[in-house]
Amino acid sequence: MRSPWVAALVIAAGIVVYPVTVLAVDGPPAFPSAHDCVHPATSDGKIWLVLGRFSDMAPAEQLAIRAARAGFVGTIATLDGCGRVVVATPGYTTLSGAQSAVEEARAAGFTASPEFEP
After folding, report:
1. Is-contact 49 69, C-beta < 8 A?
2. CA dist., res. 86 & res. 75, Å (int)
3. 3-state secondary structure the chain
4. What percentage of the chain has pLDDT greater than the value 70?
5. pLDDT tops 70 at residue 1
6. Would you say residue 108 has pLDDT above 60?
7. How high is the pLDDT of residue 31?
8. Burial track 65-96 (b if 16+ CB lie within 10 A, e otherwise)
9. Rg (CA), the chain
């Protein structure tokens, strides 16, 4: 009759001891910050022309529509890995092409930056 109680006690101790040990050794879990999801393009590769980041989808979608109307075809509003909505035009493969697009975006009234595709 004692073995079920012993087994339950061992399981309960494991449930408590393991997380406490992990926290003591590794510290609390790390979550990405907004800065962790920004990767400025420094060379050729898969590059997005990023037009903005938002905490809400509605203004991001409005910016994506404005950008598409201004000629930035394929502009999307999508979640990044840091809990924000990024508005970007994907499809650039050279840094020089993306930098030219930055100038076009500025001329059209947008703030833009070339970033590596997440």
Report:
1. no
2. 10
3. CHHHHHHHHHHHHHHHHHHHHHHHHHCCCCCCCHHHHCCECCCCCCEEEEEEEECCHHHHHHHHHHHHHCCCCCCEEEECCCCCEEEEEEEECCHHHHHHHHHHHHHCCCCCEEEECC
4. 92
5. no
6. yes
7. 64
8. ebbeebebeebbbeebebebbbbbbeebeeee
9. 23
Structure tokens at 109: 């009234």
The two three-digit tokens of residue 13, written as one number: 């101790």
The terminus-to-terminus CA distance of the chain in angstroms comes to 57
Residues 50-91 have pLDDT tens digits of: 999 999 999 999 999 999 999 999 999 999 888 899 999 999
Q: Which amino acid is at 80?
A: D
Tokens 């400025």, located at residue: 40
One-letter amino acid of 16: V
Cα gap 69→90, rounded to integer Å: 16
